[in-house]
Automatic annotation (TrEMBL):
Keywords: ATP-binding, Hydrolase, Iron, Iron-sulfur, Metal-binding, Nucleotide-binding. This is Iron-sulfur cluster carrier protein. The lineage of its organism: Bacteria, Pseudomonadati, Pseudomonadota, Alphaproteobacteria, Sphingomonadales. PANTHER family: IRON-SULFUR PROTEIN NUBPL (PTHR42961:SF2). Binds and transfers iron-sulfur (Fe-S) clusters to target apoproteins. Can hydrolyze ATP. CDD domains: Mrp_NBP35. InterPro entries: Mrp/NBP35_ATP-bd, NUBPL-like, P-loop_NTPase, YlxH/NBP35. ATP binds at G81, K82, G83, G84, V85, G86, K87, S88.
Length: 321
């Protein structure tokens, strides 16, 4: 068979992607343009081409080579000085909000001591496949692929990991087959320990977002996390204040259990951009527990996350210019 005859065997939508097709002895070698295809779509394309050519006269074997334009993938780390300030919730919602803006976004849950992305993105219990020694991210139903330690180990098991082991496991997540994903949000563990350091050294994120609640103690820790990024040469995109202002569901009165405006003041003092404020809101907590991120809906809470996502998208556009 010559190239034309080989291409004629393929369905029209696949034929358009073929860059070259030739016989090498009894082996059919087809080179396909895989730009813009997800890992799942690439696997399906490969199978369809093999199925269409296998068994044809003179074809003993089919080899399909996928070529894609190299995606310039950028990494943004979401960090906090202290645990429980809403870093994972922010990561999920920013990813969903940025995806809604048309970016191809994935989430790496590097919080090996308390992975929460499987729950937040409703992929609990799913296990990633591996192909050619690389993990294939799990497609969440929000158009955001995700990989988490929580997908790889049984609950609680990750807690015993330390230093190099944790760092290697984290690298497997970041270096997975992210296909055409152009932006990875990395949900870091809280604090400034080994895992954060190894992440900065090995993967050098393009930028970092720091999240804090407004009270002084959280702010001191956030400033320390900021220093870690500074030392690692990672630009800080800005600070986010979470759990600000609680509107009483009964009377509507807004109170500030963790103080007010502390993060904005701290950002000004540290000469860092302030990216916005997320209210302390029962629906945000409930949405997280249900695996239905607020940013996927049209509520006011969702709008607060989207406003911060807009600022991050602006930062990305400025950096790319
Ligand atoms: N703005 C908010 N309003 C109400 N609840 C929130 C808000 N942000 C986060 N939460 C809730 O607070 C808890 C901790 O949030 P989350 O897991 O996102 O924090 P974290 O900083 O990633 O924590 P960890 O240190 O465990 O990684 C969760 O139950 C979450 O639903």
């Amino acid at each position: 068979m010559n190239q034309e005859q080989m291409i004629a065997c393929l369905p029209a939508e696949l034929a358009g992607r073929v860059k070259s097709a030739r016989m090498v002895g009894e082996r059919a070698v087809v080179v396909v343009d895989a730009s813009g295809l997800s890992p799942a779509a690439r696997a399906a394309t490969e199978q369809e081409i093999s199925a269409a050519l296998e068994g044809r006269e003179g074809v003993a074997e089919v080899r399909v080579a996928m070529m894609a334009d190299k995606v310039r993938r950028r990494l943004i780390a979401i960090g906090s000085g202290k645990g429980g300030v809403g870093k994972s919730t922010l990561t999920t919602n920013l990813a969903v909000a940025l995806q809604r803006k048309g970016l191809k976004v994935g989430v790496v849950d590097a919080d090996i001591y308390g992975p929460s992305q499987p729950k937040l993105l409703a992929t609990e219990g799913e296990k990633p496949r591996a192909e050619n020694d690389k993990l294939i991210p799990i497609d969440s139903r929000f158009g955001v692929p995700v990989l988490s330690m929580g997908h790889l180990v049984k609950q609680g098991q990750a807690l015993a990991w330390r230093g190099p082991m944790a760092g290697n496991a984290l690298s497997q997540l970041v270096d997975a087959d992210w296909g055409d994903t152009e932006l990875l949000l990395i949900d870091l563990p809280p604090g400034t320990g080994d895992v954060q350091l190894s992440m900065l050294q090995k993967h050098k994120p393009d930028g970092a977002v720091l999240v804090s609640t407004p009270q002084d103690l959280a702010l001191i820790d956030a400033a320390r996390a900021g220093q870690l990024f500074d030392t690692g040469g990672v630009p800080i995109i800005g600070l986010v204040e979470n759990m600000a202002g609680y509107a009483c569901p009964h009377c509507g009165e807004v109170s500030d259990p963790f103080g007010k405006g502390g993060v904005e003041t701290a950002a000004a003092r540290l000469e860092l951009p302030f990216l916005g404020r997320i209210p302390l809101s029962l629906p945000i907590r409930e949405a997280g527990d249900k695996g239905e991120p607020s940013a996927a809906g049209e509520s006011e809470d969702g709008a607060a996350f989207r406003a911060i996502a807009d600022r991050i998208a602006d930062w990305l556009a400025r950096e790319a210019a």
